Amino acid sequence: MKRIVLRFQKSASTGLTLVELLVVIAIIGVLVALLLPAAQAAREAARRISCTNNLKQHGLAMNSYVSVHRYFPNAGWSGTNYPNDYSPSAKLLAHSEQEILRNLIDFDLQMGHPGREDLPVELRAAAATPVPMFLCPSDPETPVHETRLASGTMIPVAGTNYAMNQGSGLDGAFHPGFGEADGLCWVGAEVRIRDLRDGTSHTVAFAESLRGPCDTPATDAAIDTQVYRGKGRADTVIAEDADTGGLAAVLPRISSWDGARLSYWLRGSSPTGPVMNGRFTPNNPVPDLVNRSAKITAARSRHPGGVNLGFADGSVRFIEQDVSRSTWHAMWTRAGGEVISDDDGF
Fold this sequence. Notes:
Layout: H1 18-69, H2 88-91, H3 99-102, H4 121-127, E1 144-148, E2 154-158, E3 162-167, E4 204-208, E5 229-231, H5 236-250, E6 256-258, E7 275-277, E8 289-291, E9 294-296, E10 306-311, E11 316-320, H6 325-332
Parallel strand pairs: 3-7, 5-8
Antiparallel strand pairs: 1-2, 3-4, 4-10, 5-6, 8-9, 10-11
């Protein structure tokens, strides 16, 4: 019998050639380029869902508040020359499983404007506490900054991404402490469900917006108008000029920039607090405008293409930033008599 011997010859090559290596790198690069946007989109989708859930929690807490008090939360108590100025957000704490934080707040205490030096330690602790349901995960800004009291003392305060509807701004009500507006929330407001003649499902209760970095950039710096506010004027004249001339019409009248938007969830009528109007459309290139405590505002977000709104019935909708101006303003009035349809981007 013959013996068969099999011989194996080693390949002369023990690795990849340069061409093969370049091909592999190119394939990996293509895969990364394809997968990275998908991964980023998935993360943003999760953040947007989280933001929606935050607004749903606001809606549940708000309707619980209404069932107890018979009216929507306001920006301060009526009947005083110097309202104690607690925000609608602060008044939702007891209705959103935040009893421990709520118990740090004495709602009878007058906080002063911009703030008393003798604020209790407990109140300062509350002011500096970030509340998860107040923070949109798509906003990269840190939640805690410092604010200046009347004496000049700096104290830490936490912000919020959700502000209550003062009104459309078309009525010229830009200061929540100076009388009634056409929305839901101002100092001393006692708006009831029956007052929402446009319907609870058609009236904005809370809108999301972006928190500012609480610094003061130079006037010649590159300004992100989504987070910085222009100081100088906040009245109907400049709002109408912005409607027709956009950013170019507003910039010459901005004397300086303010970075404190939505930086203080505890305060109501303060310009840093969570009460806003819908005078500018979502993500408007024109910045919010502020003059002392008066402000002209827009809902803003880092969600691509639009913003989340919470309505008085507790529902939440994503509104695209190219929504018509008339439809946008109609959402902010409680009894404007406007007709809104799905064809209007609602």
